[in-house]
Amino acid sequence: MPDLHELNHQTVSQYLKNHIRTVPDWPAPGVQFRDITPLLQNPKVFRVLIDAFVHRYMDPALRPDVVAGLDARGFILGSVIAYELNVGFVPVRKKGKLPFTTVQETYELEYGSATVELHTDAVKPGDRVLLIDDLIATGGTMMAGKKLLEKLGAVVTEGAAIVDLPELGGSQKLIAAGLPLFTLLDFAGH
């Protein structure tokens, strides 16, 4: 029989999964888009979602100094989690959105590339940072965020997301690069 923590995690995961909308053939034919907006619209579901992360990161061994959120849905999660943990929040933005001095990291997409930026004063050397986004697909955005934070001397203690799409290989790539990951659920084989 699974322990209470594991049983609770499975129950929370299934509860959240039941509130994720799958939109077929968007943004392109053959893509099953996992829409997290229903998780945010229902106050009870949103609280369960946020609490699942907050309870994990209240543990002194996992507690960050700063939460960094990836543009754009990582902002929604990250800012609320940072508030609940009583730590700062920093946005990792798409290129051209930050007004102060920045560092940049460019990464490859399926077709072309993208660049993310971070203010140079967003973190201090040695800061323990939780890096968060809504889902992990190819892992490119999270990897770029990790590299940016490390350029400024921070230590990314964990990458976190609601959803892992393991068939796209991102989580394996991030783990291979030395980033511990925590996700609440996955859509393997769907």
Automatic annotation (TrEMBL):
Pfam family membership, one: Pribosyltran
Keyword S-adenosyl-L-methionine: no
GO MF assignments: adenine phosphoribosyltransferase activity
Matching Gene3D superfamilies: 3.40.50.2020
Compartments where found: Cytoplasm
Residue intervals of the Phosphoribosyltransferase domain: 39-162
The reaction(s) this protein catalyses: AMP + diphosphate = 5-phospho-alpha-D-ribose 1-diphosphate + adenine
E.C. numbers: 2.4.2.7
Associated pathway: Purine metabolism; AMP biosynthesis via salvage pathway; AMP from adenine: step 1/1
Subunit structure: Homodimer.
Family from the record: Belongs to the purine/pyrimidine phosphoribosyltransferase family.
HAMAP family recorded: Aden_phosphoribosyltr
UniProt name for this protein: Adenine phosphoribosyltransferase
Name of the encoding gene: apt
